[in-house]
Amino acid sequence: MDVEDAIVELLRPIAEMPGAKAVSAFQGQPGKDVREQLRRGLPAVLVLYAGSPDFTSSGRRLEERMVFDVYVMDKSYRTETNGQKPEPGHPGTYALLAAVRERLIGVPPLPGMGPCLPSSIRGFVLDGASVYRMTVSTAHNILL
């Protein structure tokens, strides 16, 4: 199992509670057609491997820091002009973001890896959807 899939598995229970309809990995940046498809399946949690910016060597080991962006997406309910109201039992975007934090922060995605550590959370509105991007990183050792 790769790290991205392991993170998705840690988050999968969020799809079983009221709230997220989808929890999955996502490859690349979504284009407009994909965003439209996602909006029909909101709320959703998507995991994207963002790269490995840091490698640190120590003796015969190389530590790789892997960065992942976790997107918590939902319809935007902030303006009355869009006419959208949350479904009954919908926990809200902040509750979904809190559930993601609770399931990831401090938890190693795979045995032998370091815990997931947050570096930032950024929010924005994209085509009528509220999107929160939480960036987390984890590390593992590569024997040389």
Number of helices: 4
SS content category: alpha+beta
Tell me, rounded to a whole number, the average pLDDT. 81
> Which parts are unreliable, with pLDDT below 50 for 5 consecutive residues or more?
none
Q: Rounded to an integer, what's the Rg over CA atoms?
A: 17 Å
How would you write the strand order of the largest sheet?
1-2-3-5-4
- How many beta-strand runs? 5
Largest sheet geometry: 5 strands, mixed
Beta strand %: 35-45%
Overall geometric form: elongated
Kindly state the percentage of residues in helix: 10-25%
Question: Alpha-carbon distance between the termini?
Answer: 22 Å
Order of helices and strands: HHEHEEHEE
Observed structural traits:
single chain, 24% helix, elongated, 4 helices, alpha+beta, 144 residues
SSE diagram, text form:
Layout: H1 3-11, H2 13-16, E1 22-25, H3 32-40, E2 44-58, E3 61-75, H4 93-104, E4 117-126, E5 129-143
Parallel strand pairs: 1-2
Antiparallel strand pairs: 2-3, 3-5, 4-5
What does this 3D model show about the protein?
This protein has helices spanning 3-11, 13-16, 32-40, 93-104, and strands at residues 22-25, 44-58, 61-75, 117-126, 129-143. With 144 residues, it is of the alpha+beta class. Strands 1-2-3-5-4 form a five-stranded mixed sheet. 22% of the residues are buried.
